[in-house]
C-alpha cells in the first residue's frame, strides 16, 4: 500500500477522512449543483449526475455565480456537503463556501493534488495542520 | 489578520451579538482567503430574503426571519436579533414576482410569506431594489469605491465598466458587510490583481447584444477566473451589450474583471491594462471561435417547438424593453408559446408610464420584475423547450430546470415566441 503526504495551507480547520472524488473541471455552486443531494448538475461537467456527499472533493476551484457559498451552505444543512475539500485556486467563492460548509479544507499544496489523487483513493485531511495523507487504491 | 480597533470591538461583542457573529464569520472568511486586513465599505448588495423553498421552510421551523438571517447570512445556528444595517445596503433579485405570482405558479401562502420577508428586510434598512442589475436603477458605484457585492454579472460590470472595486461576495459575506461595513481587503480591492492576464484580439466585429454574449461565453471558458484584456473593439458597446458580455463571461468561467482597450476606465491603452505584467496567453476571436461559442450556448437545443421565451437576463433596461415592443409590433405570441420579460421593478414603472407594458400585454407577453426563471425557478407550467437571448440563462436554465434551451438574438427569440418555432442560426 502506497501512502503519499501533501502539505498545504489551512482554509478551514478540522479533520475528516474518506474516499476521494476528483475532477479537473471547476465547479459551479448555484446552477451547478443540487444542494439537496450534493449532485453536480452542470450540463457539460465531468461529474454531471455524481454526488460529492460523503466524499473528499478534489478539484481545481470554483466558478460561476456568487451563489456558490449559499449552495454549499444548504448542502451542509441537508447533510450533503463534501467531507473535505482540496483545491488549487483561491477565490472568494470557494473560501466563503468552504467556511460555511464547515468542511475541513486545504489549498496551496507542495504538489498538485490533481496529479496525485485519483477517484477512490482514501484521503485523510487535517485542515488545521494543512496535511493530507493519501492511501492509493490498489 | 490584523484588526482595527472598531473591528476588535465588534468581535468582542461590544456592539451586539449579531455584529459579533458577523465579525467572527468575516474573520474566518478573511483568514481562509489569506487576507491581511479588512477594508471599509459603504456599498453592499446582497440577498437576505427567504423566497426559495429550503430557506422558507428553515425560517418556519426555526422561528422566522431572524433565524434565516442568523443561519444564512451569519453562519450562526444560534438565532440572534438582527439590528439595522450599518451601511448602504441593497437587495438583489428575489425568488418570485409577487405581482405575477399566479402566472408564475406561486401559491398565495408563499406570496404572503414573501411579502412578510420583504417587509422584514426593508425594516432592517435594506433598499429593496430586487434586481441583478442594481447599476441600472441608481446604485452606480464611483470609480475606486470599495464595494461588497454579490451577483457575478453585477460584480463584473461594476469592476470593469465603472472601475469600482469588489470581489464576488456571497450571501453570508454580504450579510456580514451590511452589519459591519467591513469586507476582506483581498482580490480586486488591490491594484495589482486588477491588471490583465490574458490578451484577446478580435478578428471580427462584435455587434449585436447576442454577439457580445457569445464573446463573453467564449472568453469565460478560456480564461476561467482571470482578467482578459480585449483589443480591436471599434464601436464602443452600450450598457446592454456590456451587461450581456459580462454575465456570459461570469457564467462559462468566473471572470470578475476585464478590460476593453480604449473603452473601460482602467485600460486607456493596452500597456496600462497589463501594467508590468505580460499576458500569459494570446487569444484570437474570429468566426470559428464565434461558431464554437454559439454551438456551446445551444448545446441543449434539440426540439424546435419552443414553449417559452425568456428575456431579461440580466434584467432588461428600458431600451431593451422598447426593442422588444418594436419587434412585437402587429404580432401576437403564439398559442403554444409564452414570452416573459424580466426587468427591475423601477424599470417596470417606467415601462408602464411609457406604454410599453400595455404593448407587451396586448401582444400576449408579460413584463415581470424582481426575479428570473433560473433564480426563482419560475416558468410556464409544462415548459420543455425554452429560448433566451442570454448566454447566461441558456447556460443555467437546462441545469436548473431540466429543459432544453436555445440561444439567439433578441429578434430570434421574439420570432420564436410569435411562431412557436425556433428558426435562429448564426448569420
Describe this structure in words.
The complex is a heterodimer of chains A (138) and B (427). Helices cover 17% and strands 33% of the residues of chain A. Chain A is α/β, with parallel strands linked by helices and 138 residues long. Chain A has one domain: Glucose Oxidase, domain 1 (3-Layer(bba) Sandwich), CATH 3.50.30.10. In chain A, strand 9, helix 2 and strand 10 form a beta-alpha-beta unit. Chain B has three domains: 185 residues, Aconitase, domain 3, CATH 3.30.499; 102 residues, no CATH class; 122 residues, Aconitase, domain 3. Helices cover 41% and strands 12% of the residues of chain B. Chain B has a five-stranded parallel beta sheet, sandwiched between helices. A four-stranded parallel beta sheet of chain B has the order 8-7-6-9. The radius of gyration of chain B is 22 Å and the shape is globular. The model of chain B has no long low-confidence stretch (mean pLDDT 97). Chains A and B meet through strand 2, strand 8, helix 1 and helix 2 of A and helix 2, helix 7 and helix 16 of B.
Helix content of chain B: 40-55%
Q: Quick one: biggest sheet of chain B?
A: 5 strands, parallel
Query: How confident overall, as mean pLDDT of chain B?
Result: 97
Largest sheet properties of chain A: 8 strands, mixed
**Low-pLDDT stretches of chain B:** none
How confident is the prediction overall: mean pLDDT of chain A?
96
User: How many domains is the backbone of chain B divided into?
Assistant: 3
Strand order of the largest sheet of chain A: 1-12-11-3-7-9-10-2
Report the top-level CATH class of the largest domain in chain B. Answer: Alpha Beta
By CATH reckoning, the class of chain A would read Alpha Beta
Number of helices of chain A: 3
Q: State the order of secondary-structure elements of chain A, H for helix, E for strand.
A: EEEEEEEEHEHEHEE
Amino acid at each position: 500500500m502506497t501512502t503519499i503526504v501533501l502539505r498545504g495551507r489551512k482554509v478551514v480547520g478540522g479533520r475528516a477522512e474518506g474516499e476521494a472524488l476528483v475532477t479537473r473541471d471547476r465547479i459551479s455552486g448555484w446552477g451547478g449543483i443540487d444542494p439537496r443531494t450534493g449532485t453536480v448538475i452542470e450540463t457539460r461537467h465531468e461529474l454531471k449526475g455524481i454526488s460529492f456527499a460523503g466524499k473528499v472533493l478534489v478539484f481545481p476551484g470554483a466558478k460561476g455565480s456568487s451563489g456558490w457559498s449559499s449552495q454549499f451552505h444548504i448542502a451542509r444543512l441537508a447533510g450533503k456537503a463534501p467531507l473535505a475539500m482540496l483545491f488549487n485556486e483561491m477565490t472568494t467563492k470557494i473560501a466563503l463556501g468552504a467556511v460555511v460548509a464547515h468542511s475541513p479544507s486545504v489549498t496551496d499544496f507542495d504538489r498538485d493534488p490533481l496529479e496525485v489523487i485519483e477517484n477512490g483513493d482514501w484521503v485523510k485531511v487535517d485542515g488545521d495542520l494543512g496535511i493530507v495523507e493519501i492511501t492509493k487504491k490498489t | 489578520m490584523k484588526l482595527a480597533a472598531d473591528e476588535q470591538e465588534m468581535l468582542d461583542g461590544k456592539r451586539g451579538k449579531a455584529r459579533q457573529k458577523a465579525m467572527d464569520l468575516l474573520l474566518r472568511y478573511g483568514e481562509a482567503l489569506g487576507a491581511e486586513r479588512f477594508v471599509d465599505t459603504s456599498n453592499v448588495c446582497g440577498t437576505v430574503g427567504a423566497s426559495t423553498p429550503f430557506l422558507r421552510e428553515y425560517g418556519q421551523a426555526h422561528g422566522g426571519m431572524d433565524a434565516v438571517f442568523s443561519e444564512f447570512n451569519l453562519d450562526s445556528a444560534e438565532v440572534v436579533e438582527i439590528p439595522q444595517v450599518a451601511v448602504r445596503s441593497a437587495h438583489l433579485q428575489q425568488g418570485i414576482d409577487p405581482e405575477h405570482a399566479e402566472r408564475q405558479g406561486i401559491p398565495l401562502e408563499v406570496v404572503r410569506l414573501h411579502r412578510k420577508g420583504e417587509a422584514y428586510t426593508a425594516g432592517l434598512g435594506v433598499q429593496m431594489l430586487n434586481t441583478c442589475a442594481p447599476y441600472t436603477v441608481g446604485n452606480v458605484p464611483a470609480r475606486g469605491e470599495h464595494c461588497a457585492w454579490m451577483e457575478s454579472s453585477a460584480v463584473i460590470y461594476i469592476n470593469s465598466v465603472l472601475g469600482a472595486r469588489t470581489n464576488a461576495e456571497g450571501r453570508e459575506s454580504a450579510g456580514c458587510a451590511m452589519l459591519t461595513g467591513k469586507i476582506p481587503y483581498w482580490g480586486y480591492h488591490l491594484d495589482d490583481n486588477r491588471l490583465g492576464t490574458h490578451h484577446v484580439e478580435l478578428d471580427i466585429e462584435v455587434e449585436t447584444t447576442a454577439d457580445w454574449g457569445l464573446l463573453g461565453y467564449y472568453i469565460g471558458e478560456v480564461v476561467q477566473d482571470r482578467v482578459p484584456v480585449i483589443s480591436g473593439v471599434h464601436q464602443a458597446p452600450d450598457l446592454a451589450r456590456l451587461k450581456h458580455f459580462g454575465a456570459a463571461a461570469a457564467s462559462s468561467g468566473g471572470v470578475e474583471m476585464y478590460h476593453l482597450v480604449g473603452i473601460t476606465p482602467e485600460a486607456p491603452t493596452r500597456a496600462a491594462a497589463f501594467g508590468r505584467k505580460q499576458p500569459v496567453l494570446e487569444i484570437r476571436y474570429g468566426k470559428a471561435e464565434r461558431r464554437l461559442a454559439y454551438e456551446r450556448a445551444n448545446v441543449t437545443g434539440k426540439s424546435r417547438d419552443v414553449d417559452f421565451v425568456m428575456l431579461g437576463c440580466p434584467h432588461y433596461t428600458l431600451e431593451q424593453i422598447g426593442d422588444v415592443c418594436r419587434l412585437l409590433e402587429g404580432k401576437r405570441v403564439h398559442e403554444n408559446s409564452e414570452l416573459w420579460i424580466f426587468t427591475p421593478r423601477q424599470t417596470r414603472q417606467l415601462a408602464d408610464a411609457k406604454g410599453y407594458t400595455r404593448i407587451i400585454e396586448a401582444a400576449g407577453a408579460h413584463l415581470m420584475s424582481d426575479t428570473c426563471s433560473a433564480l426563482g425557478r419560475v416558468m410556464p407550467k409544462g415548459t420543455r423547450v425554452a429560448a433566451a437571448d442570454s448566454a447566461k440563462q441558456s447556460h443555467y436554465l437546462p441545469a436548473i430546470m431540466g429543459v432544453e434551451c436555445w440561444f439567439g438574438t433578441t429578434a430570434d427569440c421574439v420570432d420564436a415566441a410569435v411562431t412557436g418555432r425556433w428558426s435562429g442560426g448564426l448569420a
